[in-house]
Amino acid sequence: xxxxxxxxxxxxxxxxxxxxxxxxxxxxxxxxxxxxxxxxxxxxxxxxxxxxxxxxxxxxxxxxxxxxxxxxxxxxxxxxxxxxxxxxxxxxxxxxxxxxxxxxxxxxxxxxxxxxxxxxxxxxxxxxxxxxxxxxxxxxxxxxxxxxxxxxxxxxxxxxxxxxx
Length: 165
Known about the structure:
This is GCN5 family acetyltransferase. Keywords: Transferase. GO terms for molecular function: acyltransferase activity, transferring groups other than amino-acyl groups. The chain is an alpha+beta fold. It contains five helices and seven strands; from the N terminus they run E-H-H-H-E-E-E-H-E-H-E-E. The protein has a domain of 114 residues: Gcn5-related N-acetyltransferase (GNAT) (Aminopeptidase, 3-Layer(aba) Sandwich). Helix 1 crosses helix 3. The protein is globular, with a radius of gyration of 15 Å. The chain starts with a strand and ends with a strand.
């Protein structure tokens, strides 16, 4: 998508990121809870810890996607990054998630020299699972009853991608 720009987050983007997580799909697909406050998001995003890289997808001035890559700081896992991402409900299915993931993997592969990238995804999130598999991720395990969501326990797949040397 030519009109979507993936870039580093700025403080002025924080309300837009919060708005993504007001959406039903973002709440259902992540470990966030409904009704996120702006002050909580400001604390979380304005001064991230070392090794956390936060990106946004912007379309015509609107923040429509959010992603974060967490570079592990433990010396024995310094070759690993974990990521999470979400796309605003009304912009899903348009390739924005793929653009975010492409930039996350570019950062991991070409700038941080990460060998392994991993994440958890709810087992019923078929669009995300399809995207991750398309980008070389494989299911490495499953945890049933991993998180409580909308009145029931849900399982996740543990997915990972190891960069071939």
